[in-house]
Design goal:
Number of strands of chain A: 5
Number of helices of chain A: 3
Strand content of chain A: 15-25%
Shape of chain A: globular
Strand order of the largest sheet of chain A: 1-2-3-5-4
Oligomer: homodimer
Chain lengths: 139, 139
């Protein structure tokens, strides 16, 4: 498995969930939103188009696995939001977020809304375990 | 070619650029941002995962074509932003936006920022023609 130099900000804001074939999946440490970040484990990626076509297809498969895992753990998900922005953190990463009509930003995007609220200890571990189990069930 | 029932809001906010194999590409009528919208021409799509795996790969190819066309017409692009949100307009559509560090929202996302500023007549047609030519050169 390729190793990866994770951007320090991504490292600080997230915790690892699972390694998929192309990407590392991490959970944003913000209990307001079930929010996964995929980071392809290849060097010097900024844009989706820096990936080969085959790796772009693998990334799309990884996105679909994240969507399924989120819907499994959060059955009240109303919409999945997917985005690759990278205006602040340049390292290529893809957001996959489960949106509920009751969440703190609905119907707006989550980026830049308010301040992240870290999970409480114990709760975060439970979420991580539930998501890992969902990935393993769906892979 | 499949026809499509375009959501009335997407219809009102955008003008057609080109038909790709899976998606219709439209330009958001907002001169603040070079902003394309891809709409897959299949019925009853809400999530990316409503597409078959093969159609998801075709969508990824369509996204890459949009990125290349935007970079061709806007060489000062600093970052491409790509997103599938759909919290307001449910019909599956993907945003591909050329971001400049001088634009009205940088480094924040463009969604929900300020008010759209329609292109002036004549300018819009020039942008449409330039983008069509870039798609034809890159396809």
């Amino acid at each position: 498995m390729m190793s990866i130099n994770l951007d320090p900000r991504l490292q600080a804001d997230t915790v690892e969930i699972i390694e998929l074939d192309l990407s590392t999946v991490r959970l944003m440490n913000d209990r307001r939103f079930p929010w996964l970040i995929l980071v392809p484990r290849l060097s010097d990626l900024v844009e989706l188009t820096d990936l080969s076509p085959g790796d772009r297809y693998r990334l799309m498969d990884n996105i679909a696995l994240c969507s399924a895992a989120l819907r499994n753990v959060y059955p009240d998900t109303h919409k999945i939001n997917t985005g690759a922005l990278g205006n602040i953190v340049r390292q290529l990463h893809v957001h996959v977020i489960a949106r509920r009509t009751t969440d703190a930003a609905w119907p707006n995007p989550v980026w830049g809304v308010g301040t992240a609220e870290p999970y409480e200890d114990g709760v975060r571990e439970a979420v991580v375990c539930d998501l890992r189990a969902a990935f393993k069930a769906g892979a």
